[in-house]
Design goal:
Layout: H1 7-24, H2 28-34, H3 39-47, H4 66-79, H5 81-100, H6 103-114, E1 120-123, E2 139-143, E3 146-157, E4 164-170, E5 180-186, E6 192-197, E7 208-219, E8 223-224, H7 230-266, E9 268-269, E10 272-273, H8 278-306, H9 313-342, H10 349-356, H11 366-384
Parallel strand pairs: 1-4
Antiparallel strand pairs: 2-3, 3-7, 4-5, 5-8, 6-7, 9-10
Amino acid sequence: MDYFLTEEQVMIRDLARQIAEEKIVPQREELDEKEEFPWDIMKVLAQSDMFGLFIPEEYGGLGKGCLELAIAVEELSRACLGVSTTYAANALGTYPLLLYGSEEQKKKYLPDIAAGKKLVAFGLTEANAGSDAAGIQTTAKLEGNEYVLNGTKQWITNGGEAEIYTIIAMTDKSKGARGASAFIVEKGTPGFSFGKKEKKMGIRASTTRELIFENCRIPKENIIGREGMGFIVAMKTLDNSRVGVGAQGVGVAQGAFDEAVKFARQRVQFGHPIISFQAIQHMLADMATQIEAARALVYSVARYIDSGAKDISKASAMAKLFATDMAMKVTVDAVQVMGGSGYMREYPVEKMMRDAKILQIYEGTNQIQRNVIGQALIKEAAKKK
């Protein structure tokens, strides 16, 4: 379908696709097997200005929006979800600064982020606080001109590799979610260390580690917004970033679908390519339709966010929910179309299927997305009374 992309958006898509095909595809199997962080690919993305896509021009970026970022993420995800997760998580970690950072903070950090000189990570999840953000145990206590952080963050993408971390911590536990605040913590700050590198089912090129804070002192100027805004910062960040997870779903599904079609044209059974069999055609037809429907929703929501709409939670949750559930189904079906070959590591669809599962889990499980949508529907119904 023609999504009426601008000439510039088409250029971004084509450049991201070129990087994916020339730099990522040849390495994806090795990166997965060795669980290697894709620094060389990140450098290529930096040289191509991909890190500056969504950052305003006054801070060294290209000044584009959510749609352009989604287009780039989709193309990278067609090749390797582990690599695209590394790239997308950088944007996730940057959104708190973009949305709520002071002018001084933006001038200090955004140019290096836009240039790809420093990666970013977002620290919200803990052992007892995932979807329940109000359960955060990490604390930040103001002592003079410094905040002292104590606690542990779990399963943080880009942990240990990133230079800049946007962290949600409790400044007043008695207030529950309203007692959370957001902070900038730089790698190398005394008292800030990392746990072991996690072993994962999929997205193995992406690094996941614990963040450990032991009397970690940061300047009080490193607070994002003001005390008590942490929960709002986190939720608005996720509202903006979830459409990117939807784009990942579209990308990995498209990659798996392309492999299934190619295989079905080459695989001969009973004297005919299996793509000539109606059973296979129906599977491929459903896969193609589901991918196109998800892409249409993701692009539409990205445009809606870029329009400046304020209430984007429901739409963003819908894009994430629909596209990632679709990705799981399509990657499973791609393996099925390819039969025993699809189950073998020689072909990329087994990796794509393993990778796709995380999309239904991170940045809010798809059950939580349904909660977000449901609550929004309740509010809308109340307004109509």
